[in-house]
Specification:
Length: about 190
């Protein structure tokens, strides 16, 4: 959230600088309600523009909408510019959609397992909820339930863990979700 009425800086200049350096969502909050101001704010890269006074409920609804849109932009299968992920002797080649074990043998993955592993390797040591995993791996449709992630995790564990009952890579965080718990190297 960026208030354009900053004491020492012009909020539009701040927005321009942020947009040049980052793709972080920006919601402009301001008392400036002229059409030219709204157009300028949006053209400088704001994702939304809200004039004062506004309700907290409306602000939250707009933020949720922006975040939903951002999640939809996550591409299934191959994140931009990344060729492979490596962890503990394993390699997931995104171009070939192939998982190779430490011994070099290929481990077959379903599309759902592949997508889920890509998401987890892209966020190592970060707890991801079931809903986040569903959304980011694009496993979500009308017939997929939040507990179906548990089945996918179980299948992945059987393929990559030495002891699926005592997982080292994909750990359960009770009440929160799952975390990929070993360092991951990204290959560009």
């Amino acid at each position: 959230m960026l208030d354009l009425g900053l004491p020492e800086l012009d909020g539009l200049d701040v927005a321009r600088t942020i947009r040049q350096e980052s793709n972080v969502p920006i919601v402009m909050l301001t008392g400036r309600s002229e059409e030219a101001d709204r157009v300028m704010g949006l053209e400088l890269g704001a994702d939304d523009y809200l004039t004062k006074p506004f309700s907290t409920r409306e602000l939250l609804a707009r933020i949720r909408t922006i975040l939903r849109r951002r999640h939809a932009e996550v591409r299934q299968g191959k994140p931009e510019g990344i060729r492979a992920y490596r962890f503990d002797g394993w390699e997931l080649n995104l171009n070939l959609r192939r998982l190779s074990g430490p011994d070099g043998r290929a481990v077959p993955l379903t599309n759902g397992e592949f997508s889920l592993l890509v998401v987890m390797l892209g966020a190592p040591n970060r707890i991801l909820s079931r809903d986040q995993l569903l959304d980011l791996s694009r496993l979500h449709n009308d017939e997929v339930f939040n507990r179906s992630i548990d089945v996918q995790i179980l299948r992945l564990r059987r393929k990559i863990e030495r002891d699926p009952g005592e997982p080292r890579y994909i750990r359960t965080e009770r009440g929160a979700g799952y975390v990929f718990g070993v360092p991951v190297e990204t290959v560009y």
